[in-house]
Amino acid sequence: MTVKAVLNEKGGSVFSMSPDATLADVVRELAARKVGAVLITEGDHLAGILSERDVVRVLAKAGADALKTSASSVMTAKVETCGLDDMIDDVMERMTSSRFRHMPVVDGGSLVGVVSIGDVVKRRIEEAVRERDQMREYIHSI
Predict the structure, then answer these.
(1) Which pLDDT belongs to residue 65?
(2) Other C-beta atoms within 10 Å of 3: how many?
(3) Quick one: DSSP state of residue 72?
(4) Nearest to 118 by CA among 78, 137, 91
(5) CA dist., res. 103 & res. 119, Å (int)
(6) Span 44-58, mean pLDDT?
(7) CA distance 59 to 9
(8) Strand ranges inside 21-90, DSSP E
(9) Whole-prediction pTM value?
(10) Using CA of residue 120, residue 125, residue 131, residue 137, what is the dihedral sign?
(11) Among positive and negative, which fits the CA dihedral 90, 92, 95, 98?
């Protein structure tokens, strides 16, 4: 299964914020949208990604004053991305080995979606169940 198939099922909407947004703004949006990360964009350019983990780490280090800082000062600027034709198993491996849970999807230089580890695992489980059912049908047909 490809990333494109996942986005076709879940949709390609992308939630992003400006690098100038404060962490307080980011936290409010993460909570309101019930998501674990936000892409930080400048126009059409992907500048970084900011996750709940990033927020927790900076709060633990700097306290509540950190909420006044900009997203750009906390975000991960070197963002791993994938393409529409990438295989889900490969994406899952990259996410697991690098220990992150959200991967932006880029096609032709444009941001076209985001896949989460939950999206990937859900599709992989569906695939495993389908394979199991096919094996059962085959065994019963013998």
Answers:
(1) 94
(2) 25
(3) G
(4) 91
(5) 11
(6) 93
(7) 36
(8) 37-42, 45-51
(9) 0.85
(10) negative
(11) negative
Whether the CB-CB separation of 4 and 113 falls below 8 Å is answered with no
45 forms bridges with which residues in the sheet? 42
Phi and psi dihedrals of 112, rounded to 5?
Answer: -120, -5
pLDDT digits (tens, 9 = 90+) for 81-139: 999 999 999 999 999 999 999 999 999 988 999 999 999 889 889 889 999 999 999 99
CA R_g for the chain? 18
Amino acid letter, residue 121 = V
Instruction: Report DSSP state, residue 105.
Output: E
Class of domain 3-141: alpha beta
Q: Rounded to whole angstroms, how far apart are CA atoms 107 and 109?
A: 5
Rounded CA gap, 137 and 142, in Å? 9
**Average of per-residue pLDDT values in the chain:** 93
111 touches 46 (CB < 8 A): yes
Backbone angle region of 110, left / alpha / beta, with phi > 0 → left and psi within -120 to 50 → alpha: beta
Helices vs strands, H then E, count in the chain: 5, 5
